[in-house]
# Entry
Amino acid sequence: MLKKTATIVNRLGLHARPSAALVSTASRYEATVFLTRDHHSVNGKSIMGVMTLAAELGSELIIEVDGPDEEEAMQAILDVIASGFGEMD
# Structure
């Protein structure tokens, strides 16, 4: 199992569109994905779960990925978060 922390960098935080992008990325992999913010953990492949994190700009998410393709999944998730979900300008 891999565990890393990422910071939300886009101005509007983890609203609907970035949440959908995160779930879409996580769902491409067989590995299980859990996201935690302030002791609240959710399935990273559930749009409703991810949106309940209400992660605004500067929030830290703990990402836990477990499975046969965990390294690729973790990197893809870190990349999509670091990119600001395409909302950085």
Observations:
- The beta strands are 2-7, 32-37, 40-43, 60-66.
- DSSP finds three helices and four strands in the chain.
